[in-house]
Amino acid sequence: MLTDPMEFRSMLPIHVILCPTDFSAHADRAFHIACSLAREYVARVIVLHVVAIPQWEVGLDDLRERLSGYTSPDGTVVVERLLLDGQPVEEILDIARERPCDLIVLGTHGQTEADRPWMGSVAEAVLREAPCPVLTVGDSPSILHAEEPAALGAATH
1, 30, 57, 135: which one has the fewest Cβ atoms less than 10 Å from its Cβ? Predict the structure, then answer.
């Protein structure tokens, strides 16, 4: 049994946390959790918003402004902001691999277990393909490891 928090940190070293956002309330909550974790692990957070290619020219300045609002609540965490065009799942996974990220903290929209077969969500696809553990944040956070697809059935988000 782990009793020392430092022992847990050495088991799961976290230096870079990827936090994709669609600017929803769940994504905002995920960002605050990512910052809390980053503070504890002395890690940095990459906030990523992906614009679908056909929408790229619409509201670009507004998106940049919204993304710039993602700052560390207490100023102690380094936050990098990325605005990319493309398919959200592909871009999230590419950044997770390229940077390389140790954890993805991702807001979900609170789908029920019954909705899962039809969900087709970004969160579900990222969970299946992520190169690192994924923390999903809906009404309550759940840690799911990409290496353990069976854990998907345990998620309620």
Answer: 1
The separation between the first and the last C-alpha atoms of the chain, rounded to the nearest angstrom, is 28
Domain assignment present for residue 89? The answer is yes
Q: Is the pTM of this model over 0.85?
A: no
DSSP β-bridge partners for residue 144: 134
Instruction: Please tell me the total count of domains within the chain.
Output: 1
Full domain range(s) for residue 30: 13-148
CATH number at residue 111: 3.40.50.620
Please give the chain's pLDDT, 157 residues, in tens.
455 555 555 667 899 999 999 998 889 999 999 999 999 999 999 999 998 766 656 678 888 999 999 999 889 999 999 999 899 999 999 999 999 999 999 988 755 454 443 334 888 899 999 999 999 888 654 555 444 433 333 333 3
Distance, CA of 123 to CA of 146 (rounded, Å): 12
d(CA 59, CA 51): 10
